[in-house]
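Researcher: We're teaching a course module on how sequence relates to structure. For the next exercise, students receive a sequence and then see the predicted structure as tokens, so they can try to spot secondary structure elements on their own. Here is the exercise chain.
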Amino acid sequence: MTPPARTQAAIELLDAIIAAAREGGAAADTLIQRYFATRRYAGSKDRRAVRELVYAAIRAAGERPGGGRAAMLLLADRDAGIAATFDGEGHGPPPIHPDEPKAKAGVVPIWLGKRLTASGIGRAEQEALVARAPLDLRVNTLLASPAEVAAETGGELIPGLPAGVRLPTGTDVSALAGRAEIQDAGSQVVTLAARARRGQNVIDLCAGAGGKSLALAAVMDNDGAIIATDTDRGRLSHLLPRAERAGASIIATRLLDPGHELSTLTDVRGRADTVLIDAPCSGSGTWRRNPEARWRLTPDRIERLVATQARLIGIGAALVRPGGALVFIVCSLLDEEGRGQVAAFLADRPDWAADPLDLPAGRAHGDGWRLDPAHDGTDGFFVARLLAPC
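Model: And here is the predicted structure for the students to work with:
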């Protein structure tokens, strides 16, 4: 592909990504994979170059652009080399007209920026939310040691994390299946709030594909019981094969009926030593990996997420034994999803108490703990550990 053809491919992909963000369609990574699956003529260098153009445009535009060309024109304003590819020759895009609309430069949509600022995330911290993310692994200590994996991959141990390794960007980790999982350092940090131990009964209420369940099984030395639950059959179905590869035999799964979750968990109600809730959220802490996600959010969507989170905390509280712990996690930096949720829960249940945290990264925030990319080099998270009355 010529440079102009790469620019045109990026424009076409951005059109699809912008439409998906507006209409709730597939993620950018998925759309990029589908695009090149039907264009076998594009070599690896072409695919990499187009992908870099696409993500550079996504990161540069805070507000959702009107179209892919407008997004690429924003980059062309900053880079004469990109501007030169708008030559109208062959498969390249038509020349630029001086009065053409361009995407608006920024970090996040204005309304979201105001909410982040109100949550204590200033301009510099907001800019870090859309920077490039590192490649972190959680080593499965049931099968390998972090030092071994670091030596094998050329990675570095992550200070303060018992199983964390940071790798050079682009490292092929396929050979590590079972021995290590891609998991951001921040996700590993907040999982430590569970303080899981051998012999415990743990419920991972929103397990998804099970990254945190696998981490807990390793910390527990595969001794105890973990029930991993979710309402998404597709995501949950990936967990048991992953657990088998990892040698994590203490994990069982249960598919829950949305809106009727407790009906499938009556036999373990009030019996869990720890319930971990990695709740659905805005994902504002993970925009480094999915920057187009900030174009998908609306005030109404956040309101619905906040309501879902509050309902899940109530379900989790019903499953905790007297004196047990409820660990609430969101990969969000918006206070209404984190600090505010916990404050509301404790106001409604004064017999519960927040258990102070002191984790390897982050800092205290309200009744919990917060990490963010600018200060910690991790994805953004809020976590709180809440103790049930005895």
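Model: If you want an answer key for the exercise: The mean pLDDT is 96. Residues 3-23 form the longest helix (21 residues).
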